[in-house]
User: Fold these one by one.
Assistant:
Number 1:
Amino acid sequence: MATTGTLKELTKSGTFTPQRTISSTSQLTAPSIQRFSGMVELLTPPTSLDDLDINQGMVIDIILRLTYNEGEVSATHAEEVIKLPYKLIDEMLSWMQQEHMLEVAKAVGSLGRRGYVYSLTDGGRNRAKEAFERTQYVGPAPVPLEKYTKSVLAQATIEKLDRHQVQQALSHLILPQNFDRKIGPAVNAGSSLFLYGPPGNGKTTISEAIAKMLGGGEPIWIPYAITVGGAIIQIYDSLIHKFSTDERGGADNRWGLFQRPGVMVGGELTMEHLDLRYEPVAKFYEAPLQLKANGGMFLIDDFGRQQISPTQLLNRWIVPLETRIDFLRLNSGMTFQIPFKQLLVFSTNLDPDDLVDGAFLRRIQIKVGVFGPDEKMFYRIFENQAQALGFPTVDRESFLYFLNEWYRKTGKPLQSVHPRDILKAVKVLCEYAGEPLHMTPALIEEACQGYFVKAKSGQIL
């Protein structure tokens, strides 16, 4: 006769009594866990079904879908995919076997229960099809929204950077004197920054350096997925979340230890990217970009060139910038709030007067102009890029030709990106000709002819 009831009821009734493990946080001493107050409690893995912080049926559904997709599944493989402790997975598999959802297809080696490989029964396949109707999600078990919220708030408290640390992080860039004093306060405040100025002068590169500075470069804990209102929201994005090599300790495997995220978007940004994205076939949600960026940086590059108007975009950010809270809505109509804890960076080469109004600018704490270099800085950039590209020496005559013929005579403004691009073109010309890497005025001229465009007005673009 089939055994009925929930897993918790079974463990209490004695029908099925797995061994219990005493909860311990002795392994949760790694610096990555201890760095932020309150994270030990959040990262302690469940040691029994009673400790599990989500509905057990949600985990059973994942096991059913996993087994249906792969035909057979072992407890070890389920543990790797679902990222719950082996003990809990084994208890669930045993209960599902007693409920005639699963049967042991074979036993591998002398590993005991770890060697069992399970397959679905006819009843299990019917239950799996019902689970697929709810969602097709197969992956790490989610953590509750409440735990995620607590983790973001706990990790939002970061150690402030001093001036030397900021200068060191920007040392690979040729910037005006005291430029760090404009950037450092924005990084420490961790709220919002507006970068503006003509193109080609390093706004995006500066933003990338800022992303690496956040939190002193220390990694943070982010769950692979969260659950709210019975729905699953996948946060992990392999393009955004890069694993840290720091010691994990005994942390709950449903949480990944990642470098602070840096989300960068340009003209492809639409309003849909800022809301929960529901996949009607897979039937689970993908987190919006600002949720993926929590604890890190969200850069809106080329601001003003998005597929949505600046006004629409700015209106979307007014409340989060003011309250540090964002609101999302499930298809069921349920609305919930999430922390908005990231450095939001707007970068534009358009005139700010044409993009934003005073009300919005007041909500952005720091505005930094990034303009073209003077001739002294331009030479330093040229010298720096020549060294980086492997030129044995910097030919001063070639540099002066570049400066006189293409800037002083034409009136074209100096741009920080030009030395790199022109020297790259010179390098390609040398390689094509089979010549040793070198620079001459003639090679500079040939590179510029292929790089710059002369408009009908005579302006060099």
Number 2:
Amino acid sequence: MNKWLLGIAAALTVVILVISGILIYRNGIYDIEISVSKTGLRVGEDAEITAKAVGRYNGKTHELKPDIDGLYDNSRIGEYSITVKGSYKRAEKTETYTIKVFDDIAPQITLQTKEGHYTLPGLQYEEEGFTASDNYDGDLTDKVVRTETADKVTYTVTDSSGNKTEVTREIVYSDPVAPVITMMGEREVTQERKYPYHDAGATAFDNYDGDLTDRIVTEGEVDVTTIGDYTISYSVADSSGNIGTANRIIHIIERTKPIGEEEEAKGKVIYLTFDDGPSGYTQKLLDVLDKYNVKVTFFVCNNGLDSMIVEEAKRGHTIGVHGWTHDYKKLYTTKEGFYDSFYKMQDRIFELTGIRTNLLRFPGGSSNAVSRNYCKGIMTELTKDVTEKGIYFFDWNVLSGDSEAQPISTEQVYKNVINGITALKGKPAVVLQHDIKNFSVNAVEDIIKWGLANGYTFLPLDETSYGAHQRLNN
């Protein structure tokens, strides 16, 4: 009996111990800990999430092999869920983790640059180009926000994760380009001695300032009386201090045809010349000249009859300068006053006819004494000066008498001209008439008839013609 009871008691003891162990196990005395290597991954990161599980019991640690369930894609931004289970015998523990795949890398902006690129002062910058790329979003060039201020350009771009990049370009303001001077006409000119030199001029254009023609500075002179090579230099500066230059070379050579004053004047030639016009009688004179195909020379003034100057040139006659004014005081008080009158009339003739004449008849002639009332010796200075400038002045050796204070008859004009020509005994005759006088114009047809009948040739003046220069009186 006692042995049986002892056996039952021993069995009960084992049962109690087993049940107690189970209860202790279930009550967590055996502890399982689970962990993962990380819960966040940078997108594109080449890494693997691992898990660890350990169990502790009675101060001892047991390493467990956990089970991982669930997927994550480290190439796509997002949140993924995985579960990790650790077990030991009949004990187990499960943990759920959220794995976040993120992008914390900002996009990159690349600025393109062009060699030698610059922006003209005051003008808007011309974009050289740029690109933007992101490790996750790829090409973001079209997402770039561009902001331009006075001295810089700011480029900003944000990717889909909110990462932002900003870069700045400093604008380089500069104007390194000099103006360009374009010469009108040839760069190298050859002309004969004592023919007037007409510089064709030049134009200037700048990439920033535009047309700078009116700022061209011209240096150099051409001595048309002396054989040699001469240089005309043109220069112009823009607002940035850049200077453009150009040169024209002029070769003055000997004449192939002598000037009238340089050899003995000879030949039965009549040069009809008419001063002070045009006038209301000029049209009638032109018609008479056409009738006999005779060409003459008109020394014109600023009379307001521009259309008649055009008509004179159109019909093949020579146009010379008499002056913008016939006021002796304005003409002969100073050389500047004379040249102001000459060049204004010369320019007007050019505007009307396209011909820049260098033929001149001094109002009153080179021998006039009235100039002494305003400036002593001015005619001596002017006759020398105009010759040096390549201007050809003409006096006369036959007077028609039509400029006298008291009008004379047409018949008397005719007689004065015929007698004057005859007295020259075959030398060229430079006849002075005025087409502002009707009675003088009326004598022209008979003068032509007489001349043709007596073997004379009628010619217009040019730079080679006999000048009929008179003795100076001032």
